[in-house]
């Protein structure tokens, strides 16, 4: 089966590579010629563990191709995936569907025989019907169906998530489209991964509801963490005690600096807008957005308090700026709130991140990039842990504290404990939802 994948970002590239690994012939299209050139040289434009190897394997096997020629990619394809971005539209919080609709028009012009046009991008309810209308209008002779196939992969674990999904959701209108989609995902059917077939709107809603639910879970535990700080409870024990309840589950119960990334912030905002548009405000989701925003600002306050309210002239070493470990993605990362706020207050910022620099250099002007946590902490007044990269999980805290000009740490991922920090010679330590010392 030939498949075309329009958009080679985090989702399109991983999906295209994995579908080729299923044995399909996959042509990935992007409208950025530089990206396509890189891919054709065997270079991966993003950091995602395992992706370079799997890509090379399937290119060598002659079933994975990259091009900026959309018409050539679509010719003879049974399924054409749209995996372009749906960022927040400036000003109103809606998902910006410009890229999806542009792709739909380009696909319409290039369709030759019957194909299923599959939206993998996260899109509001009704978008798949809109894609259908757009294609039919642009090319009244086109023979096609649409399908909604939202993606649930997590950056940093994307290949495993795609290859071993909790479920695949496919929204369709007609059996013919369902049959093509069954063929696309046949290797997963054969290995008994749940494939849920629904109507278009339910598939679209599942994605937003799932992301809003997870964002709510994170925000809930962050709010409980704030209350722990006031009352002397320890959020680590609380999370563990809650998570052991099978009805709750342990995942997404880690307190931290608030959710970020390319999905939760924009998808919660989009869901809130969808609710408002239908005269049914999504009150829980709207509150989650507000609480998460406040939480991020509170994190800045924690760091300022750690330095007695004065950060002007102080040197602060920030460990981790990507929105989570194992990705280079900086979209809506907590660092984008915290770092500029500290610089604005007059601090000198040193930043360490194993893969964040390429993206981060433009986004965080005025910081000093350093390769190594120990060098960054040397003569600094505070160390702030913002992303829990493995590299930062087992630091020699004694060595860090010894060479700091004032040994203070804000551990916003709760990697260490007050006891660890005290033993290592830190003078002050704050974390999220647990005992501090100063
Ligand atoms: P991205 O911004 O990383 O990639 C989008 C790519 O599409 C870019 O390379 C861009 O050049 C290309 N593109 C845009 N218009 C095009 C066109 N007309 N023709 C060819 N290429 C075009 O985006 P992403 O993070 O991969 O997200 C894509 C979609 O998947 C979004 O809707 C997102 O919400 C959803 N999603 C993302 C994740 C994630 O973890 N990143 C997870 C699940 C779902």
From TrEMBL:
Q: What is the similarity comment for this entry?
A: Belongs to the UDP-glucose/GDP-mannose dehydrogenase family.
Please report the organism this UniProt entry assigns to the protein: Sedimentitalea todarodis
- Record bears the keyword NAD: yes
Q: At the top level of its lineage, which domain of life is listed?
A: Bacteria
The UDP-glucose/GDP-mannose dehydrogenase C-terminal domain extends over: 317-418
Q: What class of enzyme is it?
A: oxidoreductase
Q: Which SUPFAM superfamilies match?
A: 6-phosphogluconate dehydrogenase C-terminal domain-like, NAD(P)-binding Rossmann-fold domains, UDP-glucose/GDP-mannose dehydrogenase C-terminal domain
Does the UniProt entry include the keyword Secreted? no
- This one is known as UDP-glucose 6-dehydrogenase
Q: In which pathway does it act?
A: Nucleotide-sugar biosynthesis; UDP-alpha-D-glucuronate biosynthesis; UDP-alpha-D-glucuronate from UDP-alpha-D-glucose: step 1/1
């Amino acid at each position: 089966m030939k498949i075309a994948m329009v958009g080679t970002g985090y989702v399109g590239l991983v999906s295209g590579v994995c579908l080729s690994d299923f044995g399909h012939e996959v042509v990935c299209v992007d409208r950025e010629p530089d990206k396509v050139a890189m891919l054709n040289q065997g270079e991966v434009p993003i950091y995602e563990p395992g992706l370079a190897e799997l890509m090379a394997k399937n290119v060598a096997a002659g079933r994975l191709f990259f091009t900026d020629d959309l018409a050539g990619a679509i010719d003879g394809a049974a399924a054409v995936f749209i995996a372009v971005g749906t960022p927040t539209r400036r000003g109103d919080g809606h998902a910006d569907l410009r890229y999806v609709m542009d792709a739909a028009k380009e696909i319409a012009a290039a369709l030759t025989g019957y194909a299923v046009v599959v939206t993998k991008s996260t899109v509001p309810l009704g978008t798949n019907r809109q894609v259908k209308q757009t294609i039919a209008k642009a090319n009244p002779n086109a023979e096609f169906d649409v399908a909604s196939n939202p993606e649930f992969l997590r950056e940093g674990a994307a290949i495993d998530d795609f290859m071993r999904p909790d479920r695949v959701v496919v929204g369709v209108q007609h059996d013919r489209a369902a049959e093509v989609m069954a063929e696309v995902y046949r290797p997963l059917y054969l290995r008994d991964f749940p494939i849920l077939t629904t109507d278009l709107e339910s598939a679209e809603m599942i994605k937003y509801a799932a992301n809003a639910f997870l964002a709510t879970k994170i925000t809930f535990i962050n709010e409980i963490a704030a209350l722990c700080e006031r009352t002397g409870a320890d959020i680590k024990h609380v999370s563990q005690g809650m998570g052991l309840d099978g009805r709750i589950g342990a995942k997404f119960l880690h307190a931290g600096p608030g959710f970020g990334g390319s999905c939760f912030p924009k998808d919660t905002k989009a869901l809130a807008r969808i609710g408002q548009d239908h005269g049914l405000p999504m009150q829980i989701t709207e509150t989650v957005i507000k609480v998460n925003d406040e939480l991020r600002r509170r994190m800045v306050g924690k760091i300022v308090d750690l330095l007695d309210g004065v950060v002007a002239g102080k040197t602060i070493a920030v460990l981790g700026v990507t929105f989570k470990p194992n990705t280079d993605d900086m979209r809506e990362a907590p660092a984008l709130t915290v770092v500029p706020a500290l610089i604005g207050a007059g601090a000198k910022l040193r930043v360490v991140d194993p893969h964040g620099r390429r993206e981060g250099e433009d986004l965080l002007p005025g910081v000093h990039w350093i390769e190594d946590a120990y060098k960054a902490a040397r003569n600094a007044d505070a160390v702030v842990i913002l992303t829990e990269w493995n590299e930062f999980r087992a630091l020699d805290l004694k060595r860090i504290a010894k060479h700091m000009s004032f040994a203070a740490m804000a551990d916003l991922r709760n990697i260490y404990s007050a006891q660890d920090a005290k033993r290592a010679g830190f003078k002050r330590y704050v974390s999220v939802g647990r005992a501090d010392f100063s």
